[in-house]
């Protein structure tokens, strides 16, 4: 039964950006000279994940909206630093044409890709991790997904910050050791501390240590804000004033930092295919784009 083997949820954009920057364009080109480094690197990472984690089901989550309007309406600085002049996401020119090629290769392999309008890949992953039977493993370089870690299901994050070859398998204990907060409150901790990579300012004067202490003592953002109305609540000197000055931000930040888990997604068969869905097209793509080796590694890993 595939359900006894993990469901592997791949944060596709996280991995293909890492692949693009991790493999030089000069090291992976098609016969016509076009760079395919992101596609090659992504496929090699996927092959390694399938070979080493042995999933029975796989889905690659997509950013159909990398900066959803509803999150920007709450915090206008959200990911603003990554805006291109045309209003889209700032993406290296060499990567842009590789994304549709990667999706075409994944379709020929028979590996499900899934996204949702107005939602980020994180939200797709959160919904699938909540909806689908476990165990579940999430391959990402995005720390925001630590909030989904749950030993009961279980849901674990395969953190790729140092590459897939040096995966950090994160359960609740690993997240607590790293950040001194329970995984379920990682989003609250991030909102308090701030996260420059997402354009979240945090609460002025509240650093990582103080944020962790607040979460440990009081719980989530709602609990912390509620405690501000209690004169005897044990806030450290000066912290109450800093939080009181940021209550509007804290009210807005909660929905922004929390991964959605109820996105309306179609029910799909996520079973990892033991053979390509369209072998002829896959062979054509592999030959046309000089991807024979990485494609073969994925096919062999899935068949193993």
UniProtKB/TrEMBL annotation:
Keywords: DNA-binding, Exonuclease, Hydrolase, Nuclease
SMART domains noted in UniProt: 53EXOc (SM00475), HhH2 (SM00279)
TM spans (from-to): none
Domain 5'-3' exonuclease: 5-273
Source organism, top-level taxon: Bacteria
GO molecular function, one term: exonuclease activity
Keyword Endoplasmic reticulum: no
CDD domains linked: H3TH_53EXO, PIN_53EXO
Keyword Zinc-finger found: no
Record function comment: 5'-3' exonuclease acting preferentially on double-stranded DNA.
Name recorded for this polypeptide: 5'-3' exonuclease
Lineage: Bacteria, Bacillati, Actinomycetota, Actinomycetes, Micromonosporales
């Amino acid at each position: 039964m595939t359900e006894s083997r993990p469901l592997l949820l791949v944060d596709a954009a996280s991995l293909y950006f890492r692949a693009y920057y991790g493999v030089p364009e000069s090291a992976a080109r098609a016969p016509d000279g076009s760079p395919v480094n992101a596609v090659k690197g992504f496929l090699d990472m996927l092959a390694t994940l399938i070979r080493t984690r042995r999933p029975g089901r796989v889905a690659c989550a997509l950013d159909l909206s990398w900066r959803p309007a509803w999150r920007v309406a709450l915090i206008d600085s959200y990911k603003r630093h990554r805006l291109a002049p045309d209003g889209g996401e700032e993406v290296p020119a060499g990567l842009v044409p590789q994304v549709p090629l990667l999706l075409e290769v994944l379709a020929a392999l028979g590996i499900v890709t899934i996204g949702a309008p107005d939602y980020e890949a994180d939200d797709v992953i959160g919904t699938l991790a909540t909806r689908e039977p476990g165990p579940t493993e999430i391959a990402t370089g995005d720390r925001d997904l630590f909030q989904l870690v749950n030993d009961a299901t279980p849901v674990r994050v395969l953190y790729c910050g140092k590459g897939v070859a040096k995966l950090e398998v994160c359960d609740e204990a690993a997240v607590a050791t790293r950040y001194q907060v329970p995984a379920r409150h990682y989003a609250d901790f991030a909102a308090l501390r701030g996260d420059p990579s997402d354009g979240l300012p945090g609460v002025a004067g509240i650093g990582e240590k103080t944020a962790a202490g607040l979460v440990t003592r009081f719980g989530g953002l709602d609990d912390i804000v509620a405690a501000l109305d209690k004169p005897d609540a044990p806030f450290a000197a000066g912290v109450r004033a800093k939080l009181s000055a940021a209550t509007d931000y804290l009210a807005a930040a909660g929905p922004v930092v929390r991964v959605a888990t109820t996105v309306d997604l179609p029910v799909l068969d996520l079973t990892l295919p033991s053979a390509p869905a369209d072998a002829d097209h896959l062979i054509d793509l592999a030959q046309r784009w000089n991807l024979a080796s990485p494609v073969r590694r994925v096919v062999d890993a899935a068949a193993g």
